[in-house]
Design a protein that fits this description.
The protein has helices at 15-25, 34-44, 58-66, 120-128, 202-205; strands at residues 4-5, 49-52, 86-89, 95-97, 100-103, 107-108, 113-114, 132-134, 140-146, 152-158, 181-186, 196-201. By secondary structure, it is of the alpha/beta class. The chain has one domain. The chain has a five-stranded mixed β-sheet with strand order 4-5-8-10-9, covered by helices on one side. A three-stranded parallel β-sheet has the order 1-2-3, with no helix packed on it. It has a two-stranded antiparallel ribbon with strand order 6-7. Strand 9 (140-146) and strand 10 (152-158) form a beta hairpin. 24% of the residues are buried.
Amino acid sequence: MTPLIVTHFLKGVTFQPNLSYSKSSIPIAPSSSGVVLIALVILSSWLPKHMCLGNHEDRITRAINTTPELDGAIGIEDLEYERFGWKVTPFKKCVTIKGVTFSHYFTSGVAGRPISSVHIGYAMITKLHCSAVQGHSHLYNHAEQTKPDGQKIFGLAAGCYSHPKYTETWCQDTEYQWWRGIIMLEGLDGEGYYNGIRAITQRSIMK
């Protein structure tokens, strides 16, 4: 099992508070506690850790592009993820680990729009034709197909792990659909499938 995290900057909050929050949560999963916290601390000492940057970190880059005077004053490097031992995959890029491809989100079509559906796991495998895991939508959805050679592939939208009381104006009418928790893929075979998958809800962790 390789720890992988997708971080989340808060909209409408200034840079320095966001930066402080991000750094304080990097060694472990944000808001994690109990058994999961202990497990992640132990795992982080010897397993490679991968992080996929998302559209919220990209706000830093967009701010620089909009206001060039900020160039050199702020930047993605201020987050210092690598200093905490994370291997960082840039926004809109993907990383493949043991045959499973991870990204903050995947796109489809020449317009480059994120794959989106209430059945997003199925949409991912039909459009990407490989095993893939993403965040972004904050939904949990999982689907599988079998290739002609018998190899199974899956698409997984892995929900989120935001604070249970977190809310913003942009998500007030959709937040009820979110799934908060941690997904564990066990026994990856190197060809894009697993021996086991476990979905652990945040509410069970926080008890």
